[in-house]
Amino acid sequence: MVQLTISAAAKLPLFARGFPIQVDVKPGATVADVKASIAAKFPEFYSERQKVTVKGERKALDDETKVLEVLEDKEKELQVKDLGPQLGWRTVFIIEYLGPILIHPLFYHLPQLFYGQDVQHSQLQTFVYAFVMLHFTKRELETIFVHRFSHGTMPASYVFRNSAHYWILSGLFLALDIYRPVYSATSPSIRGTIRENETFLWAMTGLWAFAEVSNFHTHLTLRSLRPAGSRVRNIPYGYGFNLVSCPNYFFETLGWFFVSVMTGSISVWLFVAVSLGIMTNWALQKHKNYRNEFGKEYPRNRKAIIPFII
């Protein structure tokens, strides 16, 4: 057994006072083992709340890291920082996607509350309502039954920041705009235009459905690459992945792009623009990680998110 000293990197909650402490670990012990030892001494300071670093450094050590391999000598300390109350990523995503599911029915079925008048819904409004409800119900079901997460939790306070994108942009703003009288069946902006043409509406529905099914297919591919309960990463191949590292983001954007073309709504275009910016940033980082991890094995002709462009 090897004795390690663990000190506090910052002020800790009352239930975790008493640092520095000494813990005994086996030569092959991992950071996860160290966290478990800390949690054994301070039960409320559970592993997910802990950020463990080498003393004097800021980068968190991965749970799989073997402790003695990162310590230059036995006198060097580890430090622990409290990350605060945590929520599971699955719970976070469920909360995020719930916003539009709750908000859109209110605007669609109770227009008098928001517009001061009844709205005779156009086919366009009905189609978009169906798209939104199907899309976010799909996202909820994927979160529960399909997705596997490489990180178990995130700070609970982040849920408000993360949810704002969906609850405000694709929830409140989109619903407030698209179900208003200007898009109704009796509006001059709709009557006699392509937006009440059934051929156009069904064509856009087909394109939207193609994007949704393609997005779902890529999520299934990603799930198949990671065994349950692991953080294993493999190179994805197949539909979509031959062109970009993150086809799930590409098809997600494509689906909302078709809704934007279908409606001409500024709110939908805004949501697409913001979403594309966020997902492009994620895709570039994942693309970089793939290349760093797999080196020459990773296909060099792939882009990050948009085929042949980005």
In short:
The chain is α+β, with helices and mostly antiparallel strands and 310 residues long.
Overview of this structure, please?
There is one protein chain. This protein has 310 residues and is α+β, with helices and mostly antiparallel strands. Helix 3 packs antiparallel against helix 5 and helix 7 packs antiparallel against helix 8. The longest helix has 29 residues. It is built from nine helices and six strands, in the order ββαβαββαααβαααα. The strands form two sheets. The protein has a four-stranded mixed β-sheet, with helices on one face. A two-stranded antiparallel ribbon has the order 5-6. The chain has two domains: 82 residues, Phosphatidylinositol 3-kinase Catalytic Subunit, Chain A, domain 1 (Ubiquitin-like (UB roll)); 211 residues, no CATH class.
